[in-house]
Amino acid sequence: MTTKAELGHDVAMVLVSVIFVAFALRLHLFVDAFAAEDAELVEEVVRDETYKSSIWHFPSHNFTLAAIWAPFLLKASDKVDNITVHLDVLESRWTSRYDDYDYIVISGGHWFLKTTIFYENGTAIGCNYCPGMNLPELRSDFSYRKALQLAFRFILSSDHKPIVLFRTWTPDHFKFGRWYSGGVCNRTKPYKEGEFSEHDADRLMRQVEIEEFEKAVVVGTRNRTRIRLLDIYHLSLLRPDGHPGPYRRFHPDLSKRTQNDCLHWCLPGPVEAWNDIVMEMVLNEGDFRYFS
Fold this sequence. Notes:
Blueprint (H helix, E strand, L loop, with lengths): L3 H4 L3 E6 L4 H17 L5 E5 L6 E5 L4 E6 L5 E3 L6 E8 L1 H4 L7 E4 L9 E5 L2 E6 L11 H18 L5 E5 L32 H21 L5 E5 L2 H5 L32 H15 L8
Helix pairs in contact: 4-5
Protein name: Protein trichome birefringence-like 26
Organism: Ananas comosus
Pfam families: PC-Esterase (PF13839)
């Protein structure tokens, strides 16, 4: 593992648990395009074989950027369904690098809604949406709360004190069905206030994360842990026009029934507003930089 000290970096940032594969790929494509324009500006330090996690160094700015794929924040199997999740073990892909960075953006995401089998102490204790498995049904908000509690406990107990931004849940905008049942998002303009009500699952998951964040802040104020809420929920709720829709694949045949993507986000799009908020939050912290 290449450390910050070995690279001689002054400032480093990591995006922990880049929520969606699409977001991670867009970050890769952006940096790759930047590097193609001037290869001397970017040094790729690490890229894994899945193309989901990468670390880049920008020598002219003495700056490191990393995207680390850990969709549950917890140790989990690398599958897309019937995923094994260990509720008592954090994913080492991000915890092992935690001390290397000065600014950290951390978040959970919609992978918690997938079919998952939960383990504690090496024993299966339940699952989310797993008919026929003869396991207790434990909902996605149960696993999300467990993940946040363990992640915040790790952050709060660490001797390293970076600025940590906890990015909130983002709602989807499927109408007339879900992604698997013909749901679409064909609006071309943002919603006005009151035009759209979030789905029950989105409302529930947001409630969980706000409750756990507020608990973490109470502890953080006592031990110098700088943990801030990057709250993009309501901002995203009003942007049904920001999703790929039927263009989740290149040049779709719109004469046929096409699966819509009303969950991930286009770039350019709402994500750029999130970036502006991140920059404002970082600048408002002032010159905090102290290293453990």
